[in-house]
Amino acid sequence: MRRRSLLGLAGMGGAVSIAGCGRLRGMGRSVDRRFRIGDDGFECDTGEGFEPLDVRGVNLGMGKPGRFPGEAAITREEYDRWLEAIGELHATVIRVYTVHPPAFYEALAAYNRRADDPLYLLHGNWIGEQRLHDAGDAFRLSDELADGLRTVVDVVHGEATLPDQPGLAHGTFDTDVSNYVLGYVAGIEWPPAVVLETNDRNEPGKYEGTYLRSTTERPFERWLAGGLDATVAYETAEYGVQRPVAFTNWVTTDPLEHPYEPYPMEDAVSIDPDALVPTSDFEAGTFAAYHVYPYYPDLLNETPKYVDYIDHRGEPNSYAGYLDDLVETTDHPLVVAEFGVPASRGIAHRDVHGRDQGAHTEREQGRIVADMYEDIRAVGAAGALVFTWQDEWFKRTWNLQQFSDPDRRPFWSNVQTPEQRFGLLAFDPATAVSLDGSSGDWVDATTLTPADSPRRLDDGADASRELTAVRVTSDEASLSIRLEFADLGSAIDWEETIALVALGLTGRGNTTLPYGTAARTAPTDFLVRLAGPDDSRVTVDAYYDAFAARYGQEAGLDVDAYRERDSGRFTPIRMVLNRGYTVPPTGEEVPFDAVETGRLRYGNGNPDAPDYDSLTDVHVSPSANAVELRLPWLLLNVSDPSQRRRLGDVWVESLETDTSFREISVAAATYRPREDGAATSIDGETNLTHAVPGLEGDRLRSGAYEPPTWTEPAYTERLKRGYETVQMAFDPDA
Fold first, then answer.
1. Strand pairing partners for 659?
2. DSSP three-state, residue 87
3. Axis crossing angle, helix 219-239 with helix 192-201, rounded to the nearest 10
């Protein structure tokens, strides 16, 4: 068991980045080892001996709005701007998963020429998960692994010309950044099924290489050792340089035993980084690189010694408990190569201590990431890299992936999907409304005005129930609606005024309104009820409830009741969090769990405002006599807003089947609520007090909004509110 790192709380500032590290050529050696792995982590040769190098930084992917990662479309200007911000974060290291376009290496070299403290690089090579599954046995991809790593070596030395191939960067790589390359991290989060098949199909045996050997009989570690040994051999022979190597690992394939993990494939097989050790000819050494998040797998929520672990703050912390176990059991210095939480509206997994996968504001995201960084250092890890630098619009999440078009995800911003919101850099739709009451954002909006006078009850609140206009607009992330009133006073009184917004996309929704309104309407698929911060939500026509169609039986719903068209029932919009499981040692049954994602949050949605809340759905502006609403596209079953595509008939067609729509019907109305929230009975054909566009007898009329389409998303960049919190955590002098 390795000696605990001295980079704990007492010494987090002790391992510093050395400005001159990596700038020196070999000191007369036959092989240059400017970076190496010491007892506690990375070290670099300053010319006066090896000094510790504090590894803290970010992962940098290749995606940006409108482009899949394989298009390698990030420009030199963007790289320059991002590297400056990453440097200002007090980061010392950037990790990339695969070869980026030449502009990245040019930008990195230029940044390091002018920076007081350089940014170092951990470079990976990507093997697609589907490629691994198709191969089954990883040995079938031995050449691909070795060739990919050799390409990476040539690229960082500025000695590569890569042809134009789908999914890969190409061009002439003539910028040498090798002085700043700390090491190589091979592969991805290895699918356990592939590891099992590789071990089953091949004879047990160790690997004995020139620079690396494996100490276990398991074939998968032998395969990894062979690929990395070939990489070291190639760089040694071609460039006279050696640098540390590792492979990607994650909780699912760690070498620990996890008896409390409910899903067998999450603890079916191990890959042990300690099984790969350097020979006497490889002094640069090896390290462990793990992706560790606090909410996945479920063993982190169920293992008592993790759940009850008391961290350095004196608080229960399952994440720190697991990390402590992992670091204590690993002989190699261990870098947490990915960690973080997303600032998404939606959520995909819960953490027993609140570090969930999603439903965090940007401020909360920054605070949690900073705390996790502190956890990582406190247990003695050798470094930590935040996932990720920029938001990634192309990503999907397990509980929502069926509801969007996989070929169009980069073209719009799905704020419901947690996987898209891990970044410290946000991409905001360029035409998004501020959601702070400002009227200027709505100048070009479609405007509906009332055709009728309001019903006056002479109770002192008539002006707050009188609608003067409804404005509708949209962008790459949301449909936005602004309700304008005659007079909201100093603050809207939700006990006197409730507003409804009816939206239709399919032409077959409910034609009666609930809440005791005694009103009919055009076919309505979604109904927004604005009743104050604690009681506002979007509901869906039961027949168009995608959650019920996909998960209804598992959730214990009366599915047959959802199959009735025009039932008059509007149901909560939900997201599944887990599908239920049994904890093995105890037999405890953890039930199916879902969250009502249709609940609406009140706040200020302007990123420039001091009280900005990035999860804001509704903003009330009494001074502007307006209530503004922002609804994510996926909340409305829109599978691709860029082409106006929505989910089809969820009970007849596959959930992956979508269809086009031309417009959205929009209507708004107000009523005076009773104590139970339903409409107070008033004289007339309905209990509505006012409506836009208006009422025809007991029928609420609708207007039409035709959302624009686009081929390229328009967006702006913005550092998230949590950036400064992480910056402070990374500051070695703080």
1. 646
2. helix
3. 90
- The answer to whether 181 and 120 are in contact (CB under 8 A) is yes
Residue for token pair 């992917």: 61
Q: Which residue has the tokens 């920054």?
A: 366
Q: Which of 159, 189, 184, 164 is nearest to 174 (CA)?
A: 159
- Hey, is 617 helix, strand or coil? coil
Q: Is 181 helix (H, G, I), strand (E, B) or coil?
A: strand
Which is nearest to 526 in space by CA: 504, 500, 498?
Answer: 504
**304: part of which helix (H) or strand (E)?**
helix 304-307
pLDDT of residue 7: 39
Running DSSP on this structure, what letter comes out for residue 144?
H
Residue 448 is inside which H or E element, if any?
strand 446-448
State pTM to two decimals.
0.95
Q: How many angstroms separate the CA atoms of 425 and 721, rounded? A: 9
Alpha helices in 414-466 (DSSP H): 462-465
- Quote the CA–CA distance of 218 and 206 in Å, as a whole number: 7
Tell me, what DSSP letter sits at residue 444? T
* Tokens at 342, concatenated: 């997303």
For residues 346 and 414, what is the distance between their CA atoms, to the nearest angstrom? 9
Phi and psi angles of residue 340, each rounded to the nearest 5 degrees, phi first: 155, 175
Q: What is the pLDDT of residue 656?
A: 84
Separation of alpha carbons 358 and 355, rounded Å? 8
Contact assessment for residue 336 and residue 292, using Cβ atoms and an 8 Å cutoff: yes
Residue given tokens 């068209």 in the structure block:
565
pLDDT of residue 47: 87
Q: What is the mean pLDDT of residues 404-422?
A: 97
Asked if 308 contacts 260 with a C-beta cutoff of 8 angstroms, the reply is no
* Contact call for residues 427 and 65 (beta carbons, < 8 A): yes
Helix (H) or strand (E) holding 150: helix 142-156
Residue 24's pLDDT band (cuts 50, 70, 90): very low
Instruction: Return the structure tokens found at 53.
Output: 């190098």
Chain mean pLDDT for the chain: 95
- Any long-range contacts for 219-225 (C-beta under 8 Å, 24+ apart)? 219/139, 220/138, 220/190, 220/195, 220/269, 220/271, 221/271, 221/272, 221/275, 221/276, 223/138, 223/139, 223/142, 223/145, 223/198, 224/186, 224/187, 224/271, 224/276, 225/275, 225/276
Q: How many CA atoms lie within 13 A of 388 on its CB side?
A: 21
Angle between helical axes of 318-329 and 362-378 (0-180°, round to 10): 30
Pairing of strands 478-485, 626-632: antiparallel
| Cα dihedral sign, 571-577-579-581 | negative
DSSP state of 454: P
Q: What sections of 215-255 are H helices per DSSP?
A: 219-239
**3-class secondary-structure state, position 477:** coil
